[in-house]
Amino acid sequence: MKTELHTDWTVGDIAAGFVFDPNEGRGLFGMDGRLVIQPEYQRNYLYGDGKRDVAVVDSLLKGYPLGLMYFVRTPDGRFEVLDGQQRITSFARFVSGSNPFAVDVDGRPRYMDSLDPDMRARLLATPLTVYVCSGTPQEIQAWFRTVNIVGVPLNAQELRNAAYAGPFTSAARAVLSNPSSALAQRWGTYVAGSVKRQAVLQAALEWVSGGDPDGYMAAHRSDPDAQGLIGGFEAIIGWAGATVPQTDAPLVRGLDWGDLYRRYHTRPYSPAEVGATVARLVADPQVTDRHGIVPYVLGGCTDTRLLHVRVFDAKTRQTVYAQQTARAREEGVSNCPLCALGSGPNRTRVWTLAEMDADHVTAWSRGGATDPSNCQMLCRTHNRAKGNR
Ligand SMILES: [Zn+2]
Question: Which residue has the higher pLDDT, 389 or 78?
Fold first, then answer.
């Protein structure tokens, strides 16, 4: 990976051949077409408000530095702006007259061609400070993370889009990063986060790749389209919708549907039964983790850890411990009822409270309640052994 510091490019160099697209409201190219000002992974132009855009030109006219900018060298030898697009678009609009605005000089609104010639020349000759990075996608991503782009913090997927820029990424983004897509609402049922901030694209990559979005993007970088990714993502969401009738956010949004699909999509389910079981667990006050309900049901209702079933409180544990221990001392046996049944050295051992765990006599899954009448204290070993049954 290579980074070069450029201090020789001026406002005039960068603004050369600048084009502003009024339909999309963004700056497109600079440096006579060699600079892509707003690559697709970038945020929209936000400075066009008559304040921040004016402030950029005002700063330049006063000789204030605009701060560091970051470009990436693309495989075809051009540059893309990683950080600096808001500032560049602002001064380039003014300098090039493409979608220009006026700035106040000596109490009068001025456009580029009404500045006095000295001032205009000084503005065009203002040098900028630009870091240019080139390297492998991995190197560029690592570098992006390190510089922690001021003002435009890119998230993990935005960084990946930058590092793996190309036809595949563009095609995937055109569908999966488009908030006005007709499918966006359906995605939002299953994916948490913002479409614009690449949450859907990221979920699609993670689910379809089995948790390796970087590897997937690297392998498909030069693909002419993203049909495999989009089709795989749609298959997972289609399966989720056909299998689990519930669509409420806490039950289905943000689950790892890629993992659930991989593990369970070949199993037969009755959606009516799944729906009824999920509804019953939602209504069960002992189930404290709603997010675990759907994975628990799809997995065949075996892994109760997913549900975080209510546990006995400290007062119940202490009361039951005291009763059990008093009785055990009278009988001269261990206060763990399972140890007391055995013949080993622990048959008469009296455990401390800290050495014991509370156990549901009748398991929660068989209808046992979480109240003192269904609580017994077991030594750690026996409780673990019982839990694993
Ligand atoms: Zn025991």
Answer: 78
Task: Give the pLDDT confidence score for residue 215 in this predicted structure.
Answer: 94
Q: Using CA atoms, how far apart are residues 188 and 34, in angstroms rounded to an integer? A: 38
367 C-alpha to ligand 1 centroid (Å): 24
CA of 343 from ligand 1 middle (Å) equals 11
Instruction: Using the structure block, give the residue that is written with the tokens 């066009």.
Output: 48
Task: Name the DSSP letter for residue 353.
Answer: G
Q: Residue 70: phi, psi to the nearest 5?
A: -125, 125
182 and 303 co-located in one domain: yes
CA–CA separation, 205 and 168 (whole Å): 12
Q: How far is CA 140 from CA 85, 158, 177, 312, in A?
A: 18, 12, 22, 51
Range with lowest mean pLDDT among 85-94, 132-141, 284-293, 324-333:
132-141
* One domain, residues 172 and 284: yes
Cα of 303 vs centre of ligand 1, distance in Å, is: 24
DSSP 64-115: ----EEEEEE-TTS-EEEEE-HHHHHHHHHHHH-SS---EEETTEEE-GGGS
The structure's pTM equals: 0.63
pLDDT digits (tens, 9 = 90+) for 10-57: 999 999 999 888 776 777 899 999 999 887 656 667 788 889 999 999
- Ligand 1 centroid to residue 351 C-alpha, Å: 9
Work out how many domains the chain is built from and give that number: 3
**Separation of CA 336 and ligand 1 centre (Å):** 5
How far does residue 328's CA lie from ligand 1's centre (Å)? 13
Taking the centre of ligand 1 as the mean of its atom positions, its distance from the CA of residue 261, in whole angstroms, is 40
Domain containing 137: what range? 2-160
DSSP string over 235-272: HHHHHHHHH-----HHHHTT--HHHHHHHHTTS---HH
pLDDT of residue 145: 66
Asked if residue 332 and residue 222 are part of one domain, the reply reads no
Distance CA 38, CA 35 (A): 9
CA distance 113 to 64: 21
